[in-house]
Amino acid sequence: MRVLHIAYQQLRRYGQTRVSWAQKLTHGLIKNDHFVQGFSDRDVAAFEAPFGIRDLGKGKANRRLLETVAAFDPDLIIAGHCDIITNETLKTIKQRHPHVVIAHCNNDPLFVPDNVTRIKHRAAVVDAIFVSTGRRELTIFEDLGVRVYHMPNPVDPAYESLNNSLRSDLPIDLLFCSNSNDFTERLKMVKSLKDELGDELNFKTYGSFGDPPVWGRDYDRALAESKMGLNLNRQEGDYWYSSARMAQLAGNGILQFTHSGPRFDELLPAESVVYFDDHDDLLAKIREFHLDDAKRQAWAARARDFFHQEINNTLYAQYILEAALQIPFSHDYVWAQDINLDGTLK
Fold first, then answer.
1. DSSP character for 266?
2. Is 183 or 141 the better-scoring residue by pLDDT?
3. Eight-class DSSP state of 213
4. pTM of the entire structure?
């Protein structure tokens, strides 16, 4: 298949990049032998704008996308987080190329009100939407005339290449990296944990409490030195929703602690991820696994094996393509156990 993937490709970060679910999707499509053309809306807008001022290049970016579609002639267009591209442009694509299927992938949480609005806006002009919250939470989009699917955060073996479950000599006992304080109070819990754990273990909190955030290779190095990590979302409780941090920790063999509210116990194997209910429960379990390194290694290994086998980017990419184009599923995708091919709940 010929796939045009519209997503921010971080070209102007010049190596100081974040781990990107969009890049994982592109890699997965290519591994599955699809012909992929990328279109980075933010970068194109900046490159085409006078003096590199991105906002002045938005109109030109939309015109360049129309040129790209005409030249590339895709079977499928995947539009990720590309707010520079207007619905009017996507409508024009459908008019000029009626055979093209357009899917929107959204990896942001539903507890951010603007994100629900963005998804509904895109739903008006696409054939299918994929959202990183569990399908049963997506009923708010069912009456929009578009097929609705859940998608996970996958691992990519090119990115998640570590296996810290095999090591006992790692200097960081517990890791939490963050850079956003919007719609969250999670740092209150992190601060309390730091105070109560004190010198019991080496707890690194990059991006909080005066510690600078880490990106690119600095983030890779922090992961490479860590035994355990906190997978704290900005808000907890949405079914099967987690930030991409879950895959980054699990895929690198780092034992993670995640809230029980999203019910990942229904998706992931037992004794792979440590679930907690509240602050005291989390504190006790951190101490338990810190003092039992063999148990830490066994649970982290089980999570790593499962993610690399069942929630990897090749399966993820093929699922999105099959669902978007209505091709019968070629795999029993664990995250789609409650989803029919047409996006309805079973």
1. G
2. 141
3. P
4. 0.94
